[in-house]
Structures are given as structure tokens and as C-alpha cells.
Design goal:
327 residues; five-stranded parallel sheet
Amino acid sequence: MKNFYDVVGHKHIISHLKNAIRLNRPSHAYIFHGEDGSGKRLVADIFAAGLLCTGEGEDKPCGKCRSCLQYENRNHPDVIRVTHEKTVISVDDIRSQLVNEIQIKPYSSDYKIFIVDEAEKMNEQAQNALLKTLEEPPEYGVIILLSNNVSMFLDTILSRAVSLPFLPAEREEIVKFLIQKKHVPDYQARLAAACSGGCPGLAYNSVDSPEFEERREKSLAVLRKAGRLEAETAFEVSREWSKQKEEIKFFIRLLEVWFRDVLYVKSTGRYGKCMLGEEGSYMEAQARLLEYEKIAEILREAEKLCGRLDSNVNPEISFESLLLTLC
């Protein structure tokens, strides 16, 4: 069974949650928010299991007691995972799976825990239904909302929940984690970590996957042409990728790695220590071709596009603009 020791990063959040378990004083509602793969689902499971754990000692969850074994097998009677079949979480979903269920006392534990994944998909009616429960929660109720877009919540929801941001983990922590858990070479771990945006789960799932290699090759095919990319190719790539948010995010992360390497080559004349050292011939050519201001412009456009993606704004125009800076 996973424990807090298995979490990469988020030390302040872990400390907060461990204290809540140790003191037996959890809040009635939490919002765990961060990128997919940031660890929020893992931490939610560990926290919930820890609250329900009946093992001796302070290291919870113990992974051995009946409650922990039930949790690990996903059949604990006092844990309800709110599900939905549509693109939104409707008021009926919240009423039937949470509002009504929370009125029934726990079967075997001190707490009854509700985990709502993709909670940003609750429509306004669903959030207002939840709000009534948050205003007068039963003492045994603990609600954990998982979200990658906290801005979608009503202010009244935000004011009644403890909001815990799952910020990007340090790259070196992710590298160490990948080498230990996946047994991959250092260079492979570093590239996956760099392209993960600080999300350990994303790095773990992608480091040796065919999809990762496919995305890597597609992105490199564009980056190798930086400074001489044809406008027609830029428009074509933009049209092809404009609806694929994860593809664009990956491209931006690899672009940042690429141009850090180009800057290193430009300033030192060497590429042996570059993360993408196997691309050395392209690095050298671009280091000669591109001025520092041009590289800075490319990185500014990448940062601007990141902001639009985080705000859920249609990225097509900004992505096209970024690609055109590579021409």
C-alpha cells in the first residue's frame, strides 16, 4: 500500500495532512488542485486511508489493518468515489452520491470520506447542492475535491474548503524517483522529468512509453528546423495540433529544454553536457544562426502560450504565433 513516503514533492501538504491524521482533526472539505500527474489523486488516497486506518502507531496508513486492506482493494464501505457519465457532474450526481449518502453515518469508521475527481466539472447547480452540505457538514464527513482548474469553483465553495495547491515538483526529485522506480538511465530520466512540467505521475507514465517517444520525435522534427522553419509548415503543424492540448504542452516543455541547450552551446561552444546532446549538430547550427534576442522571443511566446493553456483559452492563435517565431 502506498504511503506518504511514496509521494514526490509536496512536503508542506504532506505535513499538513499527516498532522490532521495524527490529531484526528481533518477539515470537512479539501480542494486538491494541480496538473494531471501532479500527485493529487495519490495523496488523496493516502490521506483517506490514513484517516480510516486502525493500526497502532503514528505512521498511517499502516497498510496492514483491516481498514487499510479494504481501502487497497477499493471496497471500503466508508469511502465513496463520486462518478459521472457525462461531460459535466450534474446536480443529480452530487445529490445521489454525496448529499444523500453523507446523511448516513459511517459503517465501521470514524469518518465517511467522499472523493470527487474532476470536480471542476460540477455545474453551478451541482456546486450549489454541495454548498448546502458544506455549510452544515456532519462531524464525520470529509469531502475531497480533486481538480486541475480551481478557477471553475464558485467563491462560496472555495471559502468553505481548505485549498491545497499541488505545485510542480523539483526536477531532481523526479529524476531520482524515475531512476529508482523505473530503473532507466540518467539521461532518459532527465528528459522525461523536463517534459513532465513537474508532474511526477506524468513523468512516470511517459518515461518509457511508445507515446512519449512518438511525441518526442514529432516535436524534435519541428525544433530541428528552428530558424529556418517554413511558414507553410508552421501553419500545417498548427492546424494539426491545435486541438491537442497535451501535445502542445509537451512541445512547449521540450522546446524549453531545446533552447536551454542551444543557449549553452552558444555561450560555451560545447554540447557534451546538453540534455539533448545527441542533437548536437542541430544545436551548433542554431547557436550560430539565432541571436540571443531571437531565442528570448521564442521563449516569451512559449510562456505566453502556457498562460493561455492554463486559462483554458483556445490556444490555436498563440500556438501558431509560437511556431512562426521558429521561421
